[in-house]
Amino acid sequence: MLTSRPVAGFLVRVTLAHVVTYFAVGLVAATVFNYEELFAQPIIRDFMRPFGSVAVIVGPLLQVVRGLIIAAVLLPFRSVLVARLGWLWLWLLFIGVGILSTPAAAPGSLEGAVYSQLPWWYHLIGMPEMLVQTLLFSALTGLIARHPDGVMAALPPVFDRVIRALVVTCLSFIGYAVVSVIFALASGAAVGSAENLSPAVQGVFVAPFVANGVIAFFASANGSRGRAAAALISYAFGAVAILSYQALVFGSAGLLYALVAPVLPAAILWFATSRAPREDPASVDDAERSVSRPGSLR
């Protein structure tokens, strides 16, 4: 019988695996294939929202919901996922049902190629992103199923901190995106590709984005003991970085935005560093051996 804790852990970890792989692979694909220009092509612009629209910017939040749905659906199949090739069966399932044979005429699917007016190149150009993201997600989900106490238990402790830093970095971006959209809507500003996805505008997030990952990496070494200080450092750095960037690049700075924008990313970092760090088994064994030696307790 499954207890609530393993079920909750599986749901959370699989959801995070989806969010991180979706964000990381999507960011690379958007850069390599130039989605901003791609979505403006004839026919495509009637099918997809503009790359800089509110829906696209807030889209990462939807991935949390999608991740939870996928994780819940996979719960009864954990016995399959724990097999040595369980991750491969999951990936093939994604390819067969989630990409090629979707119930609707989606891009990249067989029905989409036959029944939609989307050009062939559009069906093919999204394949690398879908295949790589589902492959990485399937591999991570297989690891999660085989290690219900945590995937990091099978890896050196430093990987725990690296993964946590990566998760914080991805979720922090979502936090900044949400606050930015709220401010844009409140001020009545147009939320379009030219305004939101230009290098000058997006550059304001680079320093806080990287800093949150670095802070999370070092703060996770101390677990909950240092999370308050880490969150405060994250908030302070984010506010100062945003004010400085706006003043240098745009000639003026929005104080209210700079004070509010780092709140959600700092809160995310606070929650992400709440768990105590995992000890290195080698160091634990060394400590136990030193205690067990004669004369070590003088």
TrEMBL record:
**Compositional bias segments (type: Basic and acidic residues):** 279-291
Q: Which residues cross the membrane?
A: 7-33, 53-75, 87-108, 120-144, 165-188, 200-221, 228-248, 254-272
Q: Which UniProt keywords apply?
A: Membrane, Transmembrane, Transmembrane helix
**Domain of life from the UniProt record:** Bacteria
The UniProt annotation puts the region (Disordered) at 279-298
Any idea what this protein is called?
Uncharacterized protein
